[in-house]
Amino acid sequence: MIHPFDDTYFMKRALQEAQMAYDKNEVPIGAVIVMNDQIIARAHNLTETLNDVTAHAEMQAFTAAADFLGGKYLKECTLYVTLEPCQMCAGASYWTQIGRIVYGASEEKRGFLAMKTTLHPKTKVIGGVLKEESAKLLTRFFIEKRNLN
Amino acid sequence: MIHPFDDTYFMKRALQEAQMAYDKNEVPIGAVIVMNDQIIARAHNLTETLNDVTAHAEMQAFTAAADFLGGKYLKECTLYVTLEPCQMCAGASYWTQIGRIVYGASEEKRGFLAMKTTLHPKTKVIGGVLKEESAKLLTRFFIEKRNLN
């Protein structure tokens, strides 16, 4: 029997969030947080709308997930995010003690891997899930931005 | 003529914020953000009250300062914070492009220096301002916590 709720399934939900950011003229990055095959938080980048550089998809998703659970820690949860988290978001994930991070496209310049951010020792990481779809949306956004300026 | 608005003056304001956190049974860390000798944001750690590990004093102060200024970047601002920022908060400061970070006590285990978090290249850092006062409040908090458990 095929398990319908795999990493690709949830990354598609994160990509839907990224599309919502795109539609608002935000850098298109989306995230969902999942526990027991249930989405408990969804968010997309809102740095322009909220005029706040800390309003990354992941940060909002962490806050929303903790609010939903009524507990600060996300040990049993997985974060799905369309782009490799930055050092701020990876640093936040450290405090949440999140169980797993699954990301799409790599961020080779400002991602947490290049920045050598320390994750929580119990956090597992998987990269590259639907990376082409994620990167395509980001590239489209930045090309359109450049053509407007 | 003595300039009354020096780093010690503003760190005292950050310590007042830390005291407010202490009074709420929060880990006592406080922050203010200053531009042109004016405090434009003040915040203290609210991780327990808000049930949110991202609710560090610095994160809230960044958001409040950007909201006050109506612009995302804090290039002309100084963050005063009673404890050396963690990698999440230092990572956030990277995005704000803040001009200066002045901190009190060192955080030798989870501070951004030990964690090797990359700051924005234009951010200047000064540590150790009123470090004894800051450390004293933190130590008092943790000793009291331990005695209660």
Polypeptide structure, described:
Chain A is an alpha/beta fold and 149 residues long. Helix content of chain A is 42%, strand content 19%. The first copy, chain A, contains five helices and five strands, in the order αββαβαβαβα. Chain A has helices spanning 7-23, 57-69, 87-96, 112-115, 131-148, and strands spanning 30-35, 38-44, 78-83, 100-105, 124-126. Chain A has a five-stranded mixed sheet. In chain A, helix 1 packs parallel to helix 5. The longest helix of chain A has 18 residues, at 131-148. Chain A is globular, with a radius of gyration of 14 Å. Chain A starts with 6 loop residues before the first helix and ends with a helix. The model of chain A has no long low-confidence stretch (mean pLDDT 96). The interface between A and B is medium-sized, with 28 and 28 residues. Chains A, B: The active site is at 58 (proton donor). Chains A, B: Its cofactor is Zn(2+). Chains A, B: Pfam families: dCMP_cyt_deam_1. Chains A, B: Zn(2+) binds at residues 56, 86, 89. Chains A, B: This is tRNA-specific adenosine deaminase.
Secondary structure elements and their pairing?
Two copies of one chain form a homodimer.
Chain A lengths: L6 H17 L6 E6 L2 E7 L12 H13 L8 E6 L3 H10 L3 E6 L6 H4 L8 E3 L4 H18 L1
Parallel strand pairs in A: 3-4, 4-5
Antiparallel strand pairs in A: 1-2, 1-3
